[in-house]
Specification:
6% of the residues lie in helices and 44% in strands. The protein has 140 residues and is mostly beta strands. The strands form 3 sheets. A 5-stranded antiparallel sheet has the order 1-9-6-11-4, with no helix packed on it. A 5-stranded antiparallel sheet has the order 8-7-10-5-12. It starts with 9 loop residues before the first strand and ends with a helix. The model has no long low-confidence stretch (mean pLDDT 93).
């Protein structure tokens, strides 16, 4: 997905149901770039952060949804041409499409982030070098 841009990534509007029992946040029917519903094959939890940035890579095929369950953090996105910095707060969700460099930073105390991934782990899908990522995007 070399041609993807930052504008393809976006915050998700979670349906919230609030009643006397509490709040229910619903995540469903998330679409890929071809408007097909994504199926997520892997889920993992990030927590107990030190001062190091997380992410710091791009994926060639993988979609990710980041769910902020507690705290807030910054996500810096770069598509090979432009970059933005977005703050994700408690209770928010964000879709990152393939072909976008991401760096997560500025974690607040007791952050809990759930990441839903569209594919199983595949080291060949990762681009770990920003310079290599820029070259990958130039081959559009």
């Amino acid at each position: 997905m070399k041609q993807t841009r930052i504008s393809d990534c976006h915050e998700l509007n979670l349906k919230k149901i609030i009643d006397i029992r509490g709040r229910l946040d619903i995540i469903e029917d998330i679409k890929d770039l071809n408007n097909h519903t994504l199926n997520f094959k892997r889920c993992y939890i990030l927590r107990d952060f030190n001062k190091e940035n997380r992410g710091v890579h791009a994926h060639k095929k993988l979609y990710q949804v980041l769910l902020t369950l507690n705290g807030s953090f910054n996500i810096n996105l770069f598509d090979g041409f432009e970059s933005i910095n977005h703050i994700l707060k408690d209770g928010s969700a964000f879709l990152i499409v393939p072909g976008i460099w991401r760096e997560l930073s500025n974690f607040k105390h007791n952050n809990v982030i759930v990441v839903m991934a569209s594919e199983l782990y595949d080291e060949d899908d990762y681009i770990h070098s920003k310079e290599r990522f820029i070259e990958y995007k130039k081959l559009i």
